[in-house]
Amino acid sequence: MGQESLLERFHALRAEYIELQNQKDVLLQWAKPQLMATYASSIGSAQVALLQTQLRIKALKRKVEMVRGVVARNEQLDVNAIELQVAGELAEAEKAIMEETHLIEQSKLLLDNLVSQKDSNELRKIYVQLAKKLHPDVNPGVTPTQQQIWQEVQDAYNECDLERLKSLEVIYAAELATAEQTIENWPPETIEERNNTLVTGIAKLRIQILDIKSEFPFTLEANLHNPEWIEAQRQEIDAATHSLLAVEKELLHEFETLVNDYDGATK
User: Fold this and answer.
1) pTM of the shown model
2) What is the DSSP letter of 215?
3) Tell me, what's the pLDDT at 109?
4) Which of 176, 191, 242, 259 lies at a C-alpha separation of 20 to 30 Å from 224?
5) Residue 265: is its pLDDT beyond 80?
6) Digit-coded pLDDT (tens) for 88-147
7) Strand, helix or coil for residue 266
8) pLDDT value at position 267?
9) Is the CB of residue 200 less than 8 Å from the CB of residue 20?
10) Cβ-based neighbours of 75, under 8 Å, separated by 6 or more
């Protein structure tokens, strides 16, 4: 295969590789956070309420257990000490619930500040064109200057800064043209080696994309755009929380009865 044919194949493989790499990046950096935010903001508050109820029940069970132990041993009952000990034992669980609550608040902010579809498409289009010339996976011979430009491009892209990305495209037009010209001067063996590497990389990226889409939250993507499904999930979680409230009430009554009826010394 002649150099012209090799270069033609390289350009096609490079475009495919960059497109797949961008698809992977979009899934991980944008789509996944947005889906997680949608899940958290639509169902998360109900889940937090359920977790909080479960934690209160766990704490009450532990306190009842400890008071029963004190009664059985006929020891002095220090309710405050028991409260503090149980709080310490369940501190990690309480922290997890607080983090979940914080996630919900952050999710609402993320969904309120999404980039418009038009800007998102333009951002991605410019990024893909720049990546063809600067991405180290397809251009292993990039210069230190080009590496710096690539870092700036990635920063602007990750921050969804469309205007910055446009500016970089203009400012470094000459440098980008040089990078492209360097490729055209590669010897045939270098191009063929790069083509083989790209074929392998493309196959790996396809598998990685499929793996990402097979995991949460992508497995719920269709459901998260279905208001009826979301409402059904909330109702199911709310029902579970409601049933636990009766259990909590019984445990609280048992704890208070044990404490109030104990004839031993109390503090």
Assistant:
1) 0.69
2) S
3) 61
4) 242
5) no
6) 999 998 998 888 887 777 766 655 555 565 667 888 888 888 888 888 888 777 788 888
7) strand
8) 52
9) no
10) 264
Cα separation, 57 vs 191, in Å, equals 66
The C-alpha atoms of residue 57 and residue 49 are separated, in whole angstroms, by 12
CA dihedral for 251, 255, 260, 264, sign (positive or negative):
positive
pLDDT per residue over 194-226, tens digit each? 999 999 999 999 999 999 999 989 999 999 889
Query: CA separation (Å) from 81 to 76, 87, 262?
Result: 11, 10, 16
Question: Tokens standing for 75?
Answer: 């020891």
Look at residue 263 and give its three-state secondary structure. Answer: coil
Q: Where does 74-187 have alpha helices with state H? A: 79-89, 91-112, 117-134, 144-158, 162-171, 173-184
User: Is the peptide bond preceding residue 217 cis, with omega within 30 degrees of 0?
Assistant: yes
Full DSSP string of 158-188? HTT-HHHHHHHHHHTHHHHHHHHHHHHT--H
